[in-house]
Amino acid sequence: MRILPSLNAQPNEYRERRDKYLSFLLNKLKKQIEEGSDKPCITGNILKDPEAKLNEMEIKSICLTMVSAGLDTVPGNLIMGIAYLSSEHGQEIQKRAYDEIMKVYPDGDAWEKCIIEEKVPYVTAFVREVLRFFTVIPICLPRTSIKDIKYEEAVIPAGTTFYMNAWAADFDESHFKSAHEFSIERYLDNPEGSGTPHYAYGAGSRMCAGSHLANRELYTAFIRLITAFHIDPPKEAKDRSILDALECNAIPTGLTTDPKPFKCGFRARDLASLERWMAESEERTKDLAASNFNQKLIHASSEPNARGIKTTAAVGF
Ligand code: HEM
């Protein structure tokens, strides 16, 4: 694209569109700060901090990273987690997960409490196993060495590009017992801090900077899904999901796994509670959805993408 930019105009068009909405959102926040009507957020803290030394371009770049880094990765895990739950083994997992959730939240308040606390170790372990088993960035991000590295008899010169094969690490039998089995148990007696739980977030000083946020998002989403629904297998065998980290990927040349389509059923456990939770979530986020801009964004995201698939983001906490 850099060498022959005229070959494809789309990336530039997308960048312009992206810059437009980033500027719109940043200006909106600045105005709210002036009026004192802003809600607490990281960008607001930076803008208000007189000692913060970030210029506007840097702030925009951080905002963009925060949004784009989770765009494929979190949904990839969410979709493959749902795929697994819709399998035969997934039915057993759902039953145990639901029982564990009900033990902690017998009064039916898991839906709201999961945002502020993480108290169901079985679901935390499920999230970890989804992350390991589907390793949605199988070869991590390219990294360049900044100095010569001696490896056995060879010297790898500075400036060499490295890829870490996270998928291979996650299926390494010397590290993970029965690595090809989906086993939540492997994480149940493995408290945080006892080594690298998996390599889905990479490793080392440049590992994923958003891992804690992503863990919380996935935990919250699965607690809510399992609390609200039975996830059923598809009616026809041909619609089953592919439960292999590499085979499930529709675009193997992509950086991130793009799950192949499959079907499953969502059966509400208790429709009245579900409707109440949805209404409460909508009420809590009505300020976010009210602006005309958001309506436009939702509209834009409903347009079919290159593969003819319509995606509409619905966010509600
Ligand atoms: C389940 C979701 C996610 C997965 C599986 C994931 C995975 C990864 C991986 C494999 C890397 C490369 C690590 C390496 O080279 O060793 C990475 C880097 C990164 N991720 Fe994530 N990520 C996720 C969500 C997020 C989110 C939500 C954010 C931000 C809010 C984020 C921010 C970043 C950033 C800033 C880097 C670059 C770190 C650096 O270069 O120092 N990620 N992520």
TrEMBL record:
Key words, A-Z: Heme, Iron, Metal-binding, Oxidoreductase
Pfam families: p450
SUPFAM superfamilies, per the entry: Cytochrome P450
An example molecular function term from Gene Ontology annotations: heme binding
Official protein name in the record: Phenylacetate 2-hydroxylase
Gene source species: Cudoniella acicularis
Obligatory cofactor(s): heme
Binding site for heme: 208
Entry's family note: Belongs to the cytochrome P450 family.
Keyword hit for Oxidoreductase: yes
